[in-house]
Amino acid sequence: MDESRVDKWKKGWEAGWIDFHMPKVNHSLVKYYGKLTGGKKGLRFFIPLCGKTLDMKWLSDQGQEVVGVEGVEMACEQFFQEQNMKYSISDIPGIPDGKLFTGESGKIKLYKCDALAITSALVGKFDAIWDRGSLVAMDPPDRAGYIKMLKDVSKPGTNILAEIYEYDWDQRIKQHAPYPFFRQDVDDIFASWADVSEEERYDKIDEKSVFREWGLTWMTNIVYIMKSKV
């Protein structure tokens, strides 16, 4: 995630253009939580491009350890402030301008840095990864680096829950993220190192009026679970 793109997202946060932020815990995370955890607590969850999602507090309340990465400092600050959680800030070794936000309990840590700078040497390996709109937000030139990062922080048996969109790219009036991904795209990305399972698909076009304003006539939300083999 280069500086120019971080600046783009930062400007969006400053202007309040954060329609992607949900005012409640994501229903897919709640629905498939049992499949991700097998009923275990004390697992390590990774949430890339986390923003200030309420999912992090919910996972922590379930007894899990949460690590998020977010390029916008404001988002990290707002998460802890809005959850009334005390936190500390420290530098991230080896990442210029990187900051580590650590909740008082130590169960939630947010790395404010370029998501593609994350490595297992820095954050360790995870038991589960929650990709809610992260892959679809990645510009095409950055996808290989993003997948390399996910693979690096995974271990055999890591469960990756992901929400993916399908729609007709040619219908979009302005073509930018979130990008559509079809099953072949998902297989091309994950099948070489993870087992891919489609869990659910449902119509999304009328979920927000903006989708039709984009010029779309249809849009589908697909929920996948990938289990790492490496």
Write the layout of secondary structure elements.
Blueprint: H1 3-15, H2 27-37, E1 44-48, H3 55-61, E2 65-70, H4 73-82, E3 87-91, E4 99-103, E5 108-112, H5 120-123, E6 128-132, H6 143-153, E7 159-166, H7 183-190, E8 194-203, H8 210-213, E9 220-228
Parallel strand pairs: 1-2, 1-6, 2-5, 6-7
Antiparallel strand pairs: 3-4, 4-5, 7-9, 8-9
Brief account:
With 230 residues, the chain is α/β, with parallel strands linked by helices.
Structure description:
This protein has 230 residues and is an alpha/beta fold. Helix content is 30%, strand content 25%. It has eight helices and nine strands. It has a nine-stranded mixed beta sheet, with helices on both faces. Helix 3 links the parallel strand 1 and strand 2. The longest helix has 13 residues. It is globular. The model has no long low-confidence stretch (mean pLDDT 94).
Q: Helical segment tally?
A: 8
Note the main sheet. Answer: 9 strands, mixed
Secondary-structure element sequence?
A: HHEHEHEEEHEHEHEHE
Tell me the strand order in the biggest sheet.
3-4-5-2-1-6-7-9-8
Mean pLDDT: 94
Tell me the strand percentage band. 25-35%
What's the β-strand tally?
Answer: 9
What overall form do the CA principal axes indicate? globular
Question: What structural class results from the helix and strand content?
Answer: alpha/beta
Low-confidence stretches: none
Helix content: 25-40%
Radius of gyration: 17 Å
The N- and C-terminal alpha carbons lie at a distance of: 25 Å
Which terms summarize this structure?
nine-stranded mixed β-sheet; 230 residues; globular; single chain; 9 strands; 8 helices; alpha/beta
